[in-house]
Amino acid sequence: MIGGIGAQELLLILLIILLLFGARKIPEIARGLGKSVAEFKKGTKDLEDEIKKEEPEKRKPPENKDLAG
Q1: CA angle, corner 27, sides to 24 and 30, nearest 5?
Q2: Does a structural domain hold residue 31?
Q3: What are phi and psi of 6, to 5 degrees?
Q4: Has this prediction a pTM greater than 0.70?
Q5: pLDDT digits over 4-60, tens only?
Q6: Is residue 6 part of a domain?
Q7: Cα–Cα distance between 11 and 17 in angstroms, integer?
Q8: CB atoms within 10 A of CB 26
Q9: Are 29 and 21 in contact (CB under 8 A)?
Q10: pLDDT of 64
Q11: How many domains, the chain?
């Protein structure tokens, strides 16, 4: 059980979705959702890569030319 939803409730929800959208639309909806999830994952990975790239620059202490000589 997921959060109190049993097999009967899940089956009822799927049946309602089938009635609302029809059998031909469900694969199109699933395909669109899959593409959306893939784009979201790609975006989050790109953001993480950018943050990791900028972190070493922030950790590096600033150069102080006055003490050098």
Answers
A1: 140
A2: yes
A3: -95, -175
A4: no
A5: 888 899 899 989 988 888 888 888 988 999 999 999 999 999 999 998 888 776 666
A6: no
A7: 10
A8: 14
A9: yes
A10: 66
A11: 1
